[in-house]
Structure formats: C-alpha cells, structure tokens
Amino acid sequence: NGGWLTDAVQGRFVLLSLGGFAVETPLDTLHIADPEPLLRARYGTDCAYLIRPDGHIAAAFDTPDPAAIQAAYRKAGGTA
Question: CA-to-CA distance for 16 and 40, rounded, in angstroms?
C-alpha cells in the first residue's frame, strides 16, 4: 500500500517472500502473502528473493530451501 519496495528492504539483507512461499531463516523476512498486481507481474508468486543491502537481488528461489538461502547469503557477502 504505497511506497517503494526498495525502501522497505534497503540497508540490510532481506529475504522477500511472495505468495505462499514461507521459510524460516535467521534473515529479516518481508513476507507479502497477497502481492499486488504490479509486484506479481514483476516478481511472481510462491517464490522468494534474497536482496542485498544495496537493493539488488542476490538470489532467487522457487522452493523453500533454508540451506540454499543460507549458502546464497554467505556467497553474497553476509555472515554465516
């Protein structure tokens, strides 16, 4: 409801979870259960994205795999 997605995730690593995709990780998670049409069109549903502190997407996931998310987080420069 208003605002920019980049404003909501800027400054830290965030796991953006869209639709029914839910996974437990130690990362901050922004879960949007019912994405608005523009967000759905741009990013899809039932998926997740690891977003770097600068707002760029570091990795995309179409299955909830905490080990893959943690590996992508480490590779992107986060801590273990």
Answer: 13
Question: Residue 41: which of 74, 61, 18, 13 has the closest Cα?
Answer: 18
Q: Which helix (H) or strand (E) holds 72?
A: helix 66-75
What is the phi/psi pair of residue 60, to 5°? -125, 145
Q: What pLDDT, in 10s, does the model give residues 7-28?
A: 777 789 999 999 888 888 888 9
Cβ count near 51 (within 10 Å): 25
pLDDT given for residue 23 in this prediction: 82
Cβ–Cβ under 8 Å, residues 43 and 9: no
